[in-house]
Task: inverse folding
């Protein structure tokens, strides 16, 4: 049927990331900028292994309901399974990096499941094109601390409203407005309660209690183009 559409999308992705590095620092701390009162020396090896597998599917249905109106509904599912192994080693008596530093080491697995659905109405005219609707998303995170064998599970439910408008005053002169709300789940690196000492003077600690974030995006634009004068 004219303007009726059904779209199915499948997605599969794999990421593998291995990193090895040596950290050597010698920092002196001064009292009143004259006398060194303490020292910080580090000589460590860091071995990092990351794995991520993503599977997703999206179904979209567009149905004309009036001459200038379309109704669009969409459902998507996404599953991400990832692991992050970060281990730090100090030197032993033989000068080999074989002594595990538990303070700066963590090994985690994360499974994330997301379901989302949207319903949007679209209006199309010669001068005005507009769309408005909302979506709902459900996110479940399963975090497994392999070192302590602790398991945490998080569940989040969010609305994702959206609207857009594009008005054409005349040829090559337009005004557009867009708003979209979207969720953002924390990464496994942000959830790991590990102390990252890659920068010895700025040590960050992961937070396993992070919640899913929500982003608001608003854009307003006006464009005008004149062919003869080549001005935009």
Result:
């Amino acid at each position: 049927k004219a303007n009726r559409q059904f779209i199915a999308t499948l997605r599969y992705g794999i990421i593998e990331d291995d990193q090895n590095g040596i950290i050597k620092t010698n920092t002196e701390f001064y009292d009143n900028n004259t006398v060194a009162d303490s020292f910080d020396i580090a000589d460590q090896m860091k071995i990092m292994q990351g794995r991520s597998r993503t599977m997703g599917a999206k179904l979209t249905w567009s149905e004309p309901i009036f001459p200038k109106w379309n109704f669009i509904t969409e459902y998507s599912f996404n599953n991400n399974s990832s692991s992050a192994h970060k281990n730090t080693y100090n030197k032993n008596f033989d000068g080999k990096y074989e002594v595990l530093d538990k303070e700066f080491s963590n090994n985690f697995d994360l499974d994330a499941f997301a379901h989302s659905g949207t319903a949007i109405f679209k209006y199309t005219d010669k001068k005005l094109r507009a769309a408005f609707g909302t979506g709902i998303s459900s996110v479940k995170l399963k975090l497994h601390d392999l070192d302590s064998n602790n398991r945490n599970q998080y569940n989040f439910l969010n609305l994702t409203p959206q609207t857009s408008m594009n008005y054409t005053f005349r040829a090559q002169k337009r005004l557009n407005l867009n708003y979209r709300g979207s969720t953002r789940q924390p990464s496994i690196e942000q959830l790991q309660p590990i102390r990252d000492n890659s920068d010895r003077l700025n040590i960050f600690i992961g937070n396993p209690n992070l919640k899913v974030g929500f982003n608001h995006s608003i854009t307003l634009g006006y464009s005008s183009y004149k062919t003869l004068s080549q001005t935009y």
